[in-house]
Amino acid sequence: LNAWHHRNLDGVELARGVNVNLWGKCHSDWGSSAGLSHEFRVEDDLATRGGPVMVRPASTWWWLEGWSDEGGAVSGWASYNGSRGLRGRNRRHRLECGVDWRPRSNLEFGIGPSYGRDRVAAQWVDNVDDDGDDEPDHCVFGQLDNRTFEVRLRGSAAFTPRLSLQGNLQPFVTTGDYDDLRELAREHSFAFVPYSGLGDNPDFSQRSLRANVVLRWEYAPGSTVFVVWQQVHDWEH
Predict the structure, then answer these.
(1) Fewest C-beta atoms under 10 Å: which of 3, 151, 180, 213?
(2) DSSP output for the chain
(3) Can you name the residues that pair with 237 across neighbouring β-strands?
Protein backbone atom coordinates (compact mmCIF):
# COMPACT_ATOMS: atom_id res chain seq x y z
CA LEU A 1 0.00 0.00 0.00
CA ASN A 2 1.48 3.36 -1.06
CA ALA A 3 0.54 7.03 -0.77
CA TRP A 4 2.30 10.13 -2.09
CA HIS A 5 2.06 13.90 -1.94
CA HIS A 6 4.39 16.20 -3.94
CA ARG A 7 4.78 19.98 -4.04
CA ASN A 8 7.33 22.09 -5.90
CA LEU A 9 9.31 24.94 -4.33
CA ASP A 10 6.53 27.41 -5.24
CA GLY A 11 4.04 25.42 -3.16
CA VAL A 12 2.14 24.07 -6.17
CA GLU A 13 0.60 20.68 -5.36
CA LEU A 14 1.85 18.43 -8.19
CA ALA A 15 0.74 14.96 -7.06
CA ARG A 16 -1.46 13.32 -4.45
CA GLY A 17 -2.51 9.71 -4.71
CA VAL A 18 -2.85 6.21 -3.27
CA ASN A 19 -1.99 2.78 -4.64
CA VAL A 20 -2.31 -0.89 -3.71
CA ASN A 21 -0.36 -3.74 -5.36
CA LEU A 22 -0.77 -7.52 -5.07
CA TRP A 23 1.68 -10.23 -6.14
CA GLY A 24 1.58 -14.01 -6.03
CA LYS A 25 3.60 -16.98 -7.22
CA CYS A 26 2.68 -20.67 -7.35
CA HIS A 27 4.94 -23.62 -6.53
CA SER A 28 4.99 -24.29 -10.29
CA ASP A 29 6.67 -20.87 -10.77
CA TRP A 30 3.64 -19.47 -12.54
CA GLY A 31 2.65 -16.10 -11.11
CA SER A 32 0.53 -12.99 -11.38
CA SER A 33 0.36 -9.45 -10.07
CA ALA A 34 -2.12 -6.60 -10.07
CA GLY A 35 -2.39 -3.00 -8.94
CA LEU A 36 -4.89 -0.18 -8.56
CA SER A 37 -4.06 3.51 -8.16
CA HIS A 38 -5.94 6.77 -7.87
CA GLU A 39 -4.49 10.24 -8.22
CA PHE A 40 -6.55 13.19 -7.01
CA ARG A 41 -7.05 16.51 -8.76
CA VAL A 42 -3.79 18.48 -8.61
CA GLU A 43 -1.90 21.03 -10.70
CA ASP A 44 0.77 20.57 -13.39
CA ASP A 45 3.66 22.94 -14.01
CA LEU A 46 4.89 21.08 -17.11
CA ALA A 47 1.74 20.38 -19.16
CA THR A 48 1.84 23.75 -20.97
CA ARG A 49 5.55 23.31 -21.91
CA GLY A 50 6.73 26.58 -20.39
CA GLY A 51 3.34 28.24 -20.04
CA PRO A 52 1.26 28.76 -16.90
CA VAL A 53 0.39 26.14 -14.32
CA MET A 54 -2.83 24.28 -15.12
CA VAL A 55 -5.05 21.75 -13.37
CA ARG A 56 -4.58 18.00 -13.92
CA PRO A 57 -7.91 16.21 -13.31
CA ALA A 58 -8.23 13.15 -11.09
CA SER A 59 -7.65 9.75 -12.68
CA THR A 60 -7.69 6.07 -11.80
CA TRP A 61 -5.45 3.44 -13.37
CA TRP A 62 -4.97 -0.29 -12.97
CA TRP A 63 -2.80 -3.14 -14.24
CA LEU A 64 -2.79 -6.93 -14.33
CA GLU A 65 0.02 -9.29 -15.33
CA GLY A 66 0.60 -13.04 -15.47
CA TRP A 67 3.58 -15.20 -16.41
CA SER A 68 4.53 -18.85 -16.77
CA ASP A 69 7.55 -20.82 -15.55
CA GLU A 70 10.64 -19.28 -17.18
CA GLY A 71 12.63 -22.51 -16.77
CA GLY A 72 10.80 -24.46 -19.48
CA ALA A 73 11.50 -24.67 -23.22
CA VAL A 74 8.56 -22.33 -23.84
CA SER A 75 7.47 -19.55 -21.50
CA GLY A 76 5.26 -16.52 -21.80
CA TRP A 77 3.66 -13.56 -20.12
CA ALA A 78 0.79 -11.14 -20.71
CA SER A 79 -0.18 -7.81 -19.17
CA TYR A 80 -2.92 -5.23 -19.42
CA ASN A 81 -3.03 -1.72 -18.00
CA GLY A 82 -5.59 1.02 -18.33
CA SER A 83 -6.71 4.32 -16.89
CA ARG A 84 -9.81 6.47 -16.79
CA GLY A 85 -10.52 10.09 -15.87
CA LEU A 86 -12.90 12.98 -16.58
CA ARG A 87 -15.87 10.57 -16.63
CA GLY A 88 -14.35 8.61 -19.48
CA ARG A 89 -13.07 11.50 -21.60
CA ASN A 90 -9.54 10.50 -20.58
CA ARG A 91 -8.91 6.81 -21.03
CA ARG A 92 -5.98 4.56 -21.83
CA HIS A 93 -5.66 0.86 -22.64
CA ARG A 94 -2.52 -1.12 -23.35
CA LEU A 95 -2.14 -4.86 -23.93
CA GLU A 96 1.23 -6.61 -24.13
CA CYS A 97 2.31 -10.23 -24.32
CA GLY A 98 5.44 -12.22 -25.02
CA VAL A 99 6.60 -15.74 -25.77
CA ASP A 100 10.16 -17.09 -25.39
CA TRP A 101 11.35 -20.32 -26.99
CA ARG A 102 14.55 -22.12 -26.00
CA PRO A 103 15.04 -25.10 -28.35
CA ARG A 104 18.51 -25.71 -26.93
CA SER A 105 20.38 -24.48 -23.88
CA ASN A 106 22.43 -22.03 -25.97
CA LEU A 107 19.62 -20.75 -28.23
CA GLU A 108 16.71 -18.44 -27.39
CA PHE A 109 14.07 -16.69 -29.51
CA GLY A 110 11.35 -14.31 -28.40
CA ILE A 111 8.42 -12.30 -29.72
CA GLY A 112 6.53 -9.57 -27.86
CA PRO A 113 3.67 -7.65 -29.55
CA SER A 114 1.86 -4.75 -27.87
CA TYR A 115 -1.10 -2.52 -28.71
CA GLY A 116 -2.15 0.73 -27.06
CA ARG A 117 -5.13 3.05 -27.47
CA ASP A 118 -5.26 6.46 -25.77
CA ARG A 119 -8.04 9.02 -25.72
CA VAL A 120 -6.84 12.29 -24.15
CA ALA A 121 -9.32 15.11 -23.57
CA ALA A 122 -6.64 17.85 -23.54
CA GLN A 123 -3.27 17.03 -25.09
CA TRP A 124 -0.81 19.89 -25.55
CA VAL A 125 -0.28 20.84 -29.22
CA ASP A 126 1.63 24.15 -29.35
CA ASN A 127 2.33 27.48 -27.67
CA VAL A 128 1.72 30.60 -29.77
CA ASP A 129 3.57 33.85 -29.06
CA ASP A 130 1.68 36.77 -30.67
CA ASP A 131 3.76 39.71 -29.42
CA GLY A 132 7.27 38.23 -29.67
CA ASP A 133 8.15 38.52 -25.97
CA ASP A 134 9.11 34.82 -25.71
CA GLU A 135 6.10 34.19 -23.46
CA PRO A 136 3.21 32.07 -24.77
CA ASP A 137 0.01 34.04 -25.38
CA HIS A 138 -2.00 30.94 -26.35
CA CYS A 139 -1.44 27.43 -24.97
CA VAL A 140 -3.20 25.26 -27.53
CA PHE A 141 -4.62 21.83 -26.66
CA GLY A 142 -6.65 19.29 -28.59
CA GLN A 143 -8.55 16.08 -28.03
CA LEU A 144 -6.22 13.28 -29.12
CA ASP A 145 -7.05 9.78 -30.33
CA ASN A 146 -3.78 7.82 -30.43
CA ARG A 147 -3.15 4.20 -31.49
CA THR A 148 0.21 2.44 -31.22
CA PHE A 149 1.29 -1.03 -32.31
CA GLU A 150 4.75 -2.54 -32.03
CA VAL A 151 6.44 -5.94 -32.09
CA ARG A 152 9.76 -6.90 -30.53
CA LEU A 153 11.55 -9.84 -32.14
CA ARG A 154 14.81 -11.11 -30.69
CA GLY A 155 17.15 -14.06 -30.92
CA SER A 156 20.40 -15.01 -29.24
CA ALA A 157 22.99 -17.76 -29.62
CA ALA A 158 25.89 -18.61 -27.32
CA PHE A 159 28.60 -20.37 -29.32
CA THR A 160 30.91 -20.66 -26.31
CA PRO A 161 30.75 -19.21 -22.78
CA ARG A 162 32.78 -16.27 -24.12
CA LEU A 163 31.31 -15.79 -27.60
CA SER A 164 27.66 -14.89 -28.25
CA LEU A 165 25.47 -13.21 -30.87
CA GLN A 166 22.21 -11.35 -30.25
CA GLY A 167 19.79 -9.75 -32.71
CA ASN A 168 16.72 -7.53 -32.26
CA LEU A 169 14.07 -6.31 -34.71
CA GLN A 170 11.36 -3.82 -33.73
CA PRO A 171 8.66 -2.57 -36.15
CA PHE A 172 6.59 0.30 -34.72
CA VAL A 173 3.46 2.14 -35.94
CA THR A 174 1.64 5.03 -34.26
CA THR A 175 -1.11 7.41 -35.43
CA GLY A 176 -2.68 10.44 -33.75
CA ASP A 177 -5.84 12.32 -34.71
CA TYR A 178 -6.64 15.68 -33.09
CA ASP A 179 -9.97 17.46 -32.96
CA ASP A 180 -11.63 20.24 -30.93
CA LEU A 181 -8.55 22.52 -30.78
CA ARG A 182 -8.80 24.93 -27.82
CA GLU A 183 -6.58 27.14 -25.71
CA LEU A 184 -6.25 27.24 -21.94
CA ALA A 185 -8.66 29.93 -20.72
CA ARG A 186 -6.72 30.92 -17.60
CA GLU A 187 -3.96 29.61 -15.38
CA HIS A 188 -4.68 27.29 -12.45
CA SER A 189 -7.70 25.86 -14.29
CA PHE A 190 -8.80 23.12 -16.65
CA ALA A 191 -11.04 25.48 -18.63
CA PHE A 192 -10.64 26.05 -22.38
CA VAL A 193 -11.99 28.36 -25.07
CA PRO A 194 -12.04 27.72 -28.84
CA TYR A 195 -8.89 28.55 -30.80
CA SER A 196 -8.59 28.72 -34.60
CA GLY A 197 -5.21 30.41 -35.10
CA LEU A 198 -3.12 27.26 -35.50
CA GLY A 199 -1.99 26.97 -39.11
CA ASP A 200 -0.61 23.42 -39.25
CA ASN A 201 -2.59 20.22 -38.85
CA PRO A 202 -1.17 18.50 -35.73
CA ASP A 203 -2.33 14.99 -36.80
CA PHE A 204 0.54 12.54 -37.16
CA SER A 205 1.34 9.09 -38.49
CA GLN A 206 4.71 7.50 -37.93
CA ARG A 207 6.24 4.13 -38.76
CA SER A 208 9.70 2.89 -37.90
CA LEU A 209 11.80 -0.24 -38.20
CA ARG A 210 14.79 -0.67 -35.90
CA ALA A 211 17.26 -3.52 -36.07
CA ASN A 212 20.52 -4.27 -34.32
CA VAL A 213 22.96 -7.15 -34.03
CA VAL A 214 25.55 -7.44 -31.25
CA LEU A 215 28.51 -9.79 -31.26
CA ARG A 216 30.15 -10.23 -27.84
CA TRP A 217 33.59 -11.77 -27.41
CA GLU A 218 35.29 -12.02 -24.03
CA TYR A 219 38.78 -12.62 -25.34
CA ALA A 220 40.26 -12.62 -21.82
CA PRO A 221 38.68 -12.79 -18.34
CA GLY A 222 37.23 -9.35 -17.63
CA SER A 223 38.08 -7.99 -21.12
CA THR A 224 35.30 -7.95 -23.73
CA VAL A 225 34.94 -6.68 -27.29
CA PHE A 226 31.51 -5.74 -28.70
CA VAL A 227 30.80 -5.41 -32.43
CA VAL A 228 27.47 -3.65 -33.04
CA TRP A 229 25.45 -3.14 -36.23
CA GLN A 230 22.32 -0.95 -36.12
CA GLN A 231 19.83 0.10 -38.78
CA VAL A 232 16.94 2.55 -38.32
CA HIS A 233 14.25 3.49 -40.84
CA ASP A 234 11.60 6.11 -40.00
CA TRP A 235 8.60 7.19 -42.08
CA GLU A 236 6.22 9.93 -40.97
CA HIS A 237 3.72 12.41 -42.36
Answers:
(1) 3
(2) -EEEEEE-TT--EEEEEEEEEEEEE-TTS-EEEEEEEEE-SEEESSTTSSS--EEE--EEEEEEEEE--TTSSEEEEEEEEEEEEGGGTEEEEEEEEEEEEEEETTEEEEEEEEEEEEEEEEEEEEEE-SSSSSS-SEEEEEEEEEEEEEEEEEEEEEEETTEEEEEEEEEEEEEEEEEEEEEE-SSSS--EEE-----S---EEEEEEEEEEEEEEEEETTEEEEEEEEEEEEEE-
(3) none
Q: What are phi and psi of 203, to 5 degrees?
A: -55, 150
Per run of 10 residues, the mean pLDDT along the chain (length 237 residues) is 95 96 96 98 95 96 97 96 95 98 96 98 95 91 97 97 97 96 96 91 95 97 96 89
134 backbone dihedrals φ, ψ, rounded to 5°? 65, 20
**How far apart are the C-alpha atoms of 228 and 84, rounded to whole Å?**
42
Query: Tell me: the pLDDT tens digits for 95-113?
Result: 999 999 999 999 999 999 9
With 0.90 as the threshold, say if the pTM is over it.
no
